Amino acid sequence: MAGDRRDSDSAGLLETYGLPLWFYPVFILLVILFGVSTEWDPNFAGEKVTPDGDDYLRVITPDSAYDGADYSMYMDASAMCVLGFGMLYTFSKFYVWGGVGLNFFICGFCFLWVNVAKTIVNAMWSGEWVKTQLNLGEMVTGCYITAAVLVSFGAIYGFTSPTQIMLLCIIEPFMMLINEHIVLYDIHVKDAGGSLVVHAFGAYFGIAVAIGMGIKASRLPSEHRTTTYFSDMGAMIGSVVLWMFWPSFNGATFASDPLLQGRIVLNTYLAIAASCATAFATSSLAHRGKFEMIEIQNSTLSGGVMIGMICPFHLEPWIPVLIGGLAGMISSMGYAKYHPFLEKFGITDSAAVQMLHGLPGVLGGVCAAFACLHGDFGYMYSYDTTWTSTADMHRTRGQQFGYVGLAIVCTLGISIVSGIITGVLMQQPCCPRVHKKDMLVDHDFWNIHDHGSDPRGKKNGNVMANPMQEMKA
Description:
Blueprint: H1 13-37, E1 38-40, E2 47-52, E3 55-60, H2 68-88, H3 96-126, E4 132-134, H4 136-155, H5 162-186, H6 195-213, H7 229-251, H8 258-286, H9 293-298, H10 302-306, H11 318-344, H12 353-374, E5 389-390, E6 393-394, H13 397-426
Parallel strand pairs: 1-4
Antiparallel strand pairs: 2-3, 5-6
Helix pairs in contact: 1-3, 2-3, 2-4, 2-7, 3-4, 3-5, 4-5, 4-6, 5-6, 5-13, 6-12, 6-13, 7-8, 8-11, 11-12, 12-13
C-alpha cells in the first residue's frame, strides 16, 4: 500500500521487528525479576492440605481472607484502565485500533512490571530487599500505577511506535513510584484518589515526553487529527465507563475501612456528577449553543480528578458539589480556549490530557492545601495517623498547607524532568520512530484491508469505501 513504510524493501530489521526484538529479552528479564521480587501474601494463600486416610483435606486457616469486596473494587479499577481508557482513545479518525490496542498492551505489561518496580523502589528507601507480597490490594495499586502510564500515553497518542511505548512502560512506573514515595513518606502528604501522584504526574510526564521527542503537533498533517461521528461515539462509551467507576477508583485501596471508603465514594460521586452537568453547560457557552464532543468526553470526568486528594475529608455535601462543578467548567473552557493556545506555542498534547488530568489534578492539590487551613481534619485518614502528627512531626495548619504546596512542586518537577529525559531516550536509534507523515495512522502497525482508512493513499487515488468516513452534505 502506498505510504506504508513496512511494506517497502528498504525497511530495516529493527524498523520492522522492533517490538519483538525489544520485548522478548525484556520479558525474560521480567520473569527473572518477578521471581526475586514477588511472593504470595501468606494471608492470601493461607491454606493447608492435610492427610485424611487415603484422601487429603484442604483446610482454610483463620488468617486467610478472600474478601469479595476487594475483588469488586479491583474489577472496577481494572475496567477503568482496560475498557474506560481504551475506548476513550478511539476518538481519532485514522488511529482507532492503535488507541484501544496499545492501551490494552500497556495494561498487560504494566500490571506485571509495576510489581517489580514497587520492590526496587521500596528497597531504594529501606536499604533492604523485601519482596512484594501479592494479593488483591496489590492488584488495585497496580491499576493506579498503570493509570498514570495510560494518562501519559494520551499525551503522545498516535505519535509513537509500539517499541517506544514499551520503553515508556518500563521507565514511568519507577518515576511515578519515586515521586509517590517522596510525597507520601518524606513530605507526609496523603493523596487518596491520586490527584497529584497519578493524574497530574501522568499528564505532565506525557507532555514532557512529547517535548523530549521534539514533536510539534502543529506540523502534523491536519487531516490526521480529525475525528468522525462513529469514532467519537466509541470514545464516548469510554467516558461513560470511566464516569461510572470513578468513585470505586478513588476508594479502591480502602476496603479495610468501610467508613472511610464510603466517604470517599460519596464525595467522588457528588463531584463527578457536578462536573458532568457543568461541562455540558460550559461547552455550550464556549461554542455558541452547541456541544463539543471532546469536552463532553473528558471534562465530564474532571470532578473525579479534582476531588481525589480531598475525597477522604469529612466535608459538607455542598463542597464536593462545588469542587466538581468548578472542575467541569475549568476543564471544558480549557479544552475550548487554553489547549489550542498551547499548541500554537509548540506544546504537544495529543488527547489534551492536561485539561482532564493535569490541571484538575493540580487544582485538587490546591483544594486540599486550603482545606488544611480550615481545620485539623484529624479523622480524614482513620487508617493512619492524623496529618498533624505524622512520623513524630507535629505540624500547624499553615505548615501543612506549605507541605501540600511542596508536594505539588515536587510532582511537577519530577514528572517534567524525567519525562523529557524519557522522551529523548525514546528518540534514540535503538527505538523505531514514527515519521510525521505516518503519525495518527493505524496502517503502519496493523494489518488493515480497508485502505480508505489511510489518508496517505488518497494522493495516489488509493481510496476504498470506508464505513467510518464522516458524511458530507
